[in-house]
Design goal:
Helix content is 35%, strand content 19%. It is built from five helices and eight strands; from the N terminus they run H-H-H-H-H-E-E-E-E-E-E-E-E.
Length: 196
């Protein structure tokens, strides 16, 4: 299989080589010692610089300076330095170089609105001081129960919801993007501002 991947690389068909290398990895067979370098070169050509860097480092860890492709691997590390710096400084992609997309749930706002869970979308809640009656009872010094209008709710028995403040909706951090407004895509970033 490694020969097929190498032949695909020689023809410039890096997508095909990528598929073959992934099949080698998924086969759970022992990986040939030169495969990490060849795979890293393929990933470099496909623009997957973070993954390429991981595999070239793995190749050097496994084979050291005695590896068949030692000089080429060191040269590839040098070539990777600039793209990896671009990825690290880019605000439009993650640390692996994959572009952020606008979150479909919150439409890039980072917040979602839903019916208020406290008032269940009514905008009012029962007064806790008078238990919704509007009246409060107190015993005087003669042990006689006196009735007073509740000062907290002005005798209405209801208060404006303390969670949504009467708007009927509560705003919370988007659970999908965790408030960032974006999610990861499988697209490689070109480090330019996305079109709106």
């Amino acid at each position: 299989m490694l020969e097929n991947a190498s032949a695909a690389m020689d023809k410039g068909d890096y997508e095909k080589a990528n598929g073959i290398f992934r099949n080698i990895i998924n086969s759970n067979q022992p990986i040939p010692p030169d495969m990490p370098y060849l795979f890293s070169k393929t990933l470099y050509e496909l623009g997957q610089y973070h993954n390429s860097n991981s595999f070239v480092n793995k190749y050097l860890d496994l084979n050291g300076f005695k590896g068949t492709y030692y000089k080429q691997a060191k040269a590839l590390q040098t070539e990777l330095a600039h793209p990896l710096e671009e990825i690290a400084s880019c605000q439009y992609c993650d640390a692996r170089g994959y572009r952020y997309g606008i979150c479909e749930t919150c439409h890039g706002e980072g917040k979602t609105e839903q019916a208020c869970s406290l008032c269940r979308g009514h905008g009012v809640i029962g007064c806790s001081r008078c238990a919704g009656d509007g009246m409060v009872t107190k015993k005087n010094v003669f042990n006689i129960i006196e009735y007073f209008e509740c000062e907290r709710c002005s005798g209405k028995g209801r208060l404006t919801c303390t969670s949504c403040h009467g708007t009927l909706v509560e705003t919370d951090t988007c659970p999908v993007c965790e408030g960032s407004g974006h999610t990861l895509t499988e697209d490689l970033c070109d480090h330019t501002a996305p079109e709106k």
